[in-house]
Amino acid sequence: MKYFPVIGLEVHVELNTKSKMFCGCSADYFGQKPNTHTCPVCLGHPGALPVPNKKAIESCIKIGLALNCDIPVFSKFDRKNYFYPDLAKGYQISQYDQPFAQNGWIKLSNGKKIGITRVHMEEDTGKLIHEKVNGENVSLIDFNRSGVPLVEIVTEPDFDDAEDVREYLQKLQQIVRYLGVSSADMDKGNMRLEPNISLRKKGEKDLPNYKVEVKNINSFGFVVKAIKSELERQEKILNDGKTPLQETRGYVEKSSSTVSQRSKEDAQDYRYFPEPDIPPLRWTINFIDGLKNKMPELPQEKENRFIKEYKISSYNASLLTKDKSLADFFENCAIDGKEFEINPKPIADYLINKKIVPEKQTPAEIIKKIKESSKVDEIDNEKLEKIIQEVLKKNPKAIEDYKSGKENAIMFLLGEVIREYKARIDTNIVKESLLSKLN
Amino acid sequence: MTKNLNKLNIKEAKEGLKKKEFSSVELTKACLKRIKETDEKLNIFVTLTEKEALKNAEKADAKLKEGVELPLLGIPIAIKDNFCTTGTRTTASAKVLDSYLPPYDATVVKKVKDAGAIILGKTNMDAWAHGSSTETSDYGPSRNPWNTNHLPGGSSGGSAAAVASNQCIAAIGSETAGSIRQPSSWCGVVGLKPTFGRVSRYGVIAMGSSFDSPGPITKTVEDSAFVLNVLAGKDEMDATTSPKDIPDYLSNINKNINLVIGISEEYFKGVDFEVVNKNKDAILKLEKKGYQVEVIKLFDPKYAIDVYTILQRSEVSSNLARYDGIRYGNDRRAFSEEAKRRIMFGTHALSSGYYDQYYNNASRVRRVIIEDFQKAFKKVDVIISPTSPTVALPLGATQNQAMFGEMADVLVEPSSIAGLSGINIPIGFSNKDLPIGMQVIGPQFAEENVLKIAKDYENLTIEDEWRNKETEI
User: Fold this and answer.
1) pLDDT value of residue A265
2) Which residue of B has its CA nearest to A86?
3) Using H for helix, E for strand and C for coil, what is the string for B149-164?
4) Which helix (H) or strand (E) holds A5?
């Protein structure tokens, strides 16, 4: 490929606070009867005013801290003005030039560092529902979602590979779940992804003079497909000596491709200005330090600690820390295991191999099972001798292989002996007597 | 009672109710009678809530009988039509909201209801509060009770005229830049503009959100202090309200406090001769009483007009976006000329490429104006000046005058931009028998001092002949 991908990502995460961003209505709108979680504020009634949800702001800052961002002591809300029927006030309260968190980074497993431009707070919109009522096609508005807190996380255009984007998204999802600030379920719309994609010539340093934003992506798998198809499409255009249009495109699952939605000419002028209904926010160092102290151990830290503290492989540590409840379960098992002198390593293997679901068993039960499985029977030496001889007689080829230096042959013979013995015995003893016979 | 009941002020009405000289129903009926006699001419009430008022007056009488004590129990008041009232039509005098029935009470409305007040109805204003005449109301202009060929001022023109014509005992207005003080000046009543953030804006149909300040319009200074006691305070529903302690605004006004009065020449330039003279007389009276008067230098108030026009139009263009035709009955075609003009102006000022030149620059100058006042208030406690450059202008004065409001409000805009406290008090009449007003401006949260000076002036002139003048109607 003559071209090099330049990809940035905007991710919206819906917070799981009890109440909405600027009013006291319940934010738990999923599956509720339309327009039952509303009040004058989130309906945008004349005269109604927003009062920011402190808990949501704290969650937003926590996400920023988890992504290694700076937390400016001064911040403010702004109005983003645009018309859409699901936007109750005719503007969205968001943050423009002074977000709660900025200049962060996240490291991928291949060592690449992805810059986080900003993490800011805003509110969700209502939802349009298009359906037939009394035989007539109508558009209805459900305002239950209006005003639910949203955090937007914007990366630098640092990605050059769709698979890295997938890993970033998985990491981000893991982090917000660890923080407990969002369930980050893609299928419930708690997490929404918008990649910006363009191509530049190899060796060039400047950003391309266009970018394409892709919307309507509702799974991590689709984001990879969308990026791949978009890169192919843009490469063709560039190969023809043209520049792809700066536009917003939508992902179409059926064809795994993107279609044009809105061109640059239709780009909105949002006329941002400071939200006069909410005074600017000034944090004390104490407040930010307090949040830092309240931060839970994050996935990467936990993984590193597991490797060091429990002496398990980095592969196992990363699998165990993927989900916080599994990680906690593993640690509880390790504590219980100590009593029975069972090391963390076999516990980790057991949890991973058996795909243990924490909610279904207690650590004590797990330890009991591991103990049982590692119990060995007393060896009947006479029986063993007999079996070894039989196995050696049946497998002259393996003996030959072993003698000619093929170390693996011993493992085959060992397996045969154990199979014949039909009980749980210490393989080391078997191996020793096998070797003494062969040498 | 020699006076008609509707002519009473709050203090007198409270005393009469307490002494059982009359009932709240009688008091309310007297106001309603006056409204019926005069409102065809004055056009003050956009919505009259006669039935509810009488029902609530009955309830108030029952409570009075039980000995319940509430600050405004049984007192009939009028409310400007930009305050949301549950189930009572609230239009902001704009046809777009012709049939809007709010599902909630503005905090100010809730507070006066909880204090026992009887709401007579909703008063006319410039549509969306865009103006200083009440002539831009989509429901026709209100008239000045002193001369019905003249305007009452605005935007709280209905509330000011209602108090002046004794259609009510007191009224609630709101000021963005002058909308309480200027109509109070033109109608010859007391109008208090509290510090921004002292009184909740929740439920007030937003105009210039960073300026809007609800406040009382009353017949006496003491009544304004009394109503402010009811209205002031932190509101959980308005993030811009201050948590600052609320003093008892009544306790200071009769005390002896030494305050320094500042006057600035810039606030007398281009002001009508008669208005200047009456204001100078008034200041002299206060000086004679023992107040020290200092000449200070403030920025020419004309600079405030540009700042205010840009910031306020910008906020308006955003605040009116919700009236998109999807809800509230009437669509955007129902917006009047003035609203459309302000939406376009503000939209332009906020547009990319213009934001720095307009909004940002205006914000910076706003800061400079605030600092100018802060500097002045290191030397003086209050500033006194005319409220309006003119007395009430005749009907039609706003025609083809897109900047009419700003010119009429030139002397009140700087202090509004700075979010200061201020009050208008009547100080006499012009040759043509139209009221002349004076304003006392104080720092933020200095309502006590502002009220104190105003009350002293009132005391000094209480026996003056002009105070016995009756309205034409």
Assistant:
1) 65
2) B326
3) CECCCCCCHHHHHHHH
4) strand A3-14
Global confidence as pTM? 0.91
Nearest to B74 by CA among B33, B34, B37, B19: B19
What is residue B207's three-state secondary structure? coil
Q: DSSP secondary structure string, A263-324? A: EGGG------EE-TTS--EE--HHHHHHHHHHPPPPHHHHHHHHHHHH---HHHHHHHTSSH
> What is the number of H-type helices and E-type strands within chain B?
14, 11
Set of chain B residues whose Cβ sits within 8 Å of the Cβ of A271: 317-318, 347, 350-352, 355
Residue with tokens 């540009």: B306
The ipTM, to two decimals, is 0.95
B19 part of the active site: no
Cβ-contact A244, A214 below 8 angstroms = no
DSSP lists the bridge partners of residue A137 as A132
B80 classed as catalytic:
yes
Q: Two tokens at A320?
A: 């165990």
Contacts of A138 (CB under 8 A, 6+ apart): A130, A131, A132
Q: Is the peptide bond before B155 cis (omega within 30 degrees of 0)?
A: yes
Do the chains contact at B350 and A40, CB–CB below 8 Å? no
Active-site residue, from B142, B174, B179, B200: B179
Radius of gyration of chain B (CA): 21
In angstroms, the separation between the Cα of residue B431 and the nearest Cα of chain A is 41
Answer whether A278 sits within 8 Å of B239, measured CB to CB: yes
CA distances from residue A13 to A8, A24, A400 in whole angstroms, order as listed: 16, 20, 64
Mean pLDDT score of chain A: 92
Q: How far apart are CA B91 and CA B102, in angstroms?
A: 10
Choice among B132, B133, B155, B224 that is catalytic = B155
Q: Both tokens of residue B299?
A: 């920025």
Q: How far is CA A173 from the centre of its chain?
A: 3
Tell me what percent of the residues of chain B surpass a pLDDT of 70.
99
Whether residue B193 lies in the annotated active site: no
Output the pLDDT for position B2: 46
Contact residues for A381 (Cβ-Cβ < 8 A; gap 6+): none
The one-character DSSP state at B245 is: P
Whose tokens are 């704290």? That residue is: A58
Which DSSP helix (H) or strand (E) runs through B3?
A: none
Residues forming beta bridges with residue A121, ordered by sequence position: A151
Beta bridge partners of B48: B121
